[in-house]
Design goal:
Structural class: alpha/beta
Strand content: 25-35%
Order of helices and strands: EEEHEEHEHHHEHEHEEHEHEEHEH
CATH topology of the largest domain: Rossmann fold
CATH class of the largest domain: Alpha Beta
Largest sheet: 6 strands, mixed
Number of domains: 3
Radius of gyration: 23 Å
Number of strands: 14
Strand order of the largest sheet: 6-7-8-3-9-10
Helix content: 25-40%
Distance between the termini: 39 Å
Length: about 300
């Protein structure tokens, strides 16, 4: 059994009468990647801020926030010393070059100059930014700035890396590069906690996830296991069938095919791909698409397809 790195129990946060986090419980284990998923306003970032001490939870004697056994409220400085934080927005100093951004930050950790220079070289090489060492921040692409922010969070050789939406807005190549680097860090024994809107990202790199909605935990577990338990294996997206189509309704009823409409698309779910294919033979090519179910399907099933007030 792996050691517990993050232990969260009875976590609550209220803003002006609005319950941002509602009685949340979860645990993160050593050297795993744990993901918080949910729509905008689900409470993911608020949860992260309470974990790394930027926000305080509601007063509750039953609340527990322990990081590597340390009390998040009483021992916040100790926790920060072995943690690395990557916020949603890059907050690099645009007046300095890449190396100077890292060097100045190293002073916050009291890293000696010689050791800091060596560590910076290692990190620029690790994040594939070595050729940008003397470049000003405004000369870097968005992907480069994001990689530099991650490098900065690794200066103190953290045991825990916390990332808030690490790849939002980045192109697929940069996203995959960051995923690979996070896998490498996990292999080195770093525990990773992240929030993300990308379902593929969570599926690719997270050992376990929780899906939140309106501050509450809806489901939790290994992404692949959650799909097996909660969803049929295949999804058929149909773009021409209407709710009033009696032939479709009859076929779905006869073959036990779960289905739902959203806007002008019908989603049909089954563990038997042949049943979906046979219905597809009644349609024109291009009017439907059969694929394996994925984490996005589960996300939409448990949180709903409609936008909530916070989105």
């Amino acid at each position: 059994m792996k050691d517990i790195v993050i232990d969260i129990r009875n976590l609550n946060k209220t803003y002006s009468g609005f319950k941002a986090v509602d009685n949340l419980d979860f645990q993160v284990f050593d050297s795993e990647c744990f993901g918080l998923l949910g729509p905008n306003g689900a409470g993911k970032t608020t949860t992260m801020k309470m974990i790394y001490g930027k926000s305080e939870p509601d007063r509750n004697d039953q609340t527990v926030i322990r990081i590597f056994g340390q009390n998040a409220k009483k021992d916040s400085l100790i926790i920060k010393s072995f943690s690395g934080i990557v916020p949603q927005q890059d907050n690099l100093d645009t007046e300095l070059n890449v190396t100077d951004n890292l060097f100045i930050y190293s002073k916050f950790y009291g890293i000696p100059s010689g050791e800091a220079k060596k560590r910076i070289e290692e990190l620029l090489d690790f994040m594939e930014l070595k050729d940008k060492a003397k470049s000003k921040i405004r000369e870097l692409s968005g992907g480069m700035q994001r990689r530099l922010t991650i490098a900065r969070a690794l200066l103190n050789k953290p045991k825990l890396l916390i990332l808030d939406e690490p790849t939002t807005g980045l192109d697929p190549q940069v996203r995959h590069l960051i995923w690979n680097k996070l896998r490498e860090l996990k292999g080195m024994g770093v525990t990773i906690l992240l929030t993300t809107h990308y379902m593929e990202e969570a599926f690719q790199i997270c050992d376990r996830i929780i899906i939140m909605d309106k501050g509450k935990k809806i489901v939790d577990g290994n992404p692949r296991e959650l799909l097996t338990v909660n969803l049929e294996s295949y999804v058929m997206e149909i773009y021409t069938v209407q709710k009033s189509d009696e032939d479709a309704q009859k076929y779905f009823a006869e073959h036990g095919i779960r289905h739902e409409f959203h806007n002008d698309t019908l989603f049909a779910y089954s563990n038997d791909k042949e049943k979906l294919s046979k219905f597809g033979e009644m349609l024109k090519i291009g009017n439907y698409y059969i694929r394996q179910s994925n984490l996005e399907d589960l996300f939409l099933k448990v949180t709903g397809r409609s936008l909530n007030e916070q989105q």
